[in-house]
Design brief:
With about 150 residues, the protein is of the alpha+beta class. Helices cover about 20% and strands about 35% of the residues. A 5-stranded antiparallel sheet has the order 1-2-3-6-7, with helices on both faces. A two-stranded antiparallel ribbon has the order 4-5. A hairpin with a 6-residue loop joins strand 2 and strand 3. It is globular. The protein starts with about 25 loop residues before the first helix and ends in a 13-residue tail after the last helix.
């Protein structure tokens, strides 16, 4: 495993729509491992592939309950709303109050190619939404009012 440099806004790669992963090979597994190491080293709880310059639909996260790796994640159900302070490794040393859904269902594929589904609430739901936003070229600053 190796740490990868985290891109910092306004790097244009952070604004790209990421490509679906059609085949899980050794290169994808290595990227996921590197992303996990990078996330932990940076003190983050989630990381999306575009944050390390890879325009693929791949996220890793760990809110203290163990590492989750998800390929081609999609949010299928949303419920409620909650506002909480969020930061981002691409926007160092700043954070904002961001409103997101308080519960989501996320579907995707794990590194073995098996379909997975997560019913997530609270912090886990927030991190899934934050990282999936990255796959769609969105950042937390896009959630702010024009005044902020």
């Amino acid at each position: 495993m190796a740490q990868r440099p985290v891109l910092v806004y306004p790097n244009s790669l952070l604004r790209k729509q990421c490509e679906r992963i059609e085949q899980i090979d050794d290169a994808i597994v290595k990227i996921a491992q590197d992303m996990a190491e990078t996330m932990y080293a940076g003190g983050g709880i989630g990381l999306a592939a575009p944050q390390v310059g890879i325009s693929k639909q791949l996220i890793v996260l760990d809110i203290g309950e163990g590492l989750l790796t998800l390929i081609n994640p999609e949010i299928s159900i949303v419920e409620g709303a909650a506002t909480m302070e969020e930061g981002c490794l691409c926007l160092p040393r700043i954070s904002f109050d961001v409103e997101r859904h308080s519960a989501v269902n996320v579907k995707g594929v794990d590194l073995s190619g098996s379909p997975v589904s997560f019913d997530a609430e609270d912090l886990l739901a927030r991190v899934f939404q934050h990282e999936i936003d990255h796959l769609n070229g969105m950042l937390i600053i896009d959630k702010l009012s024009k005044v902020k």
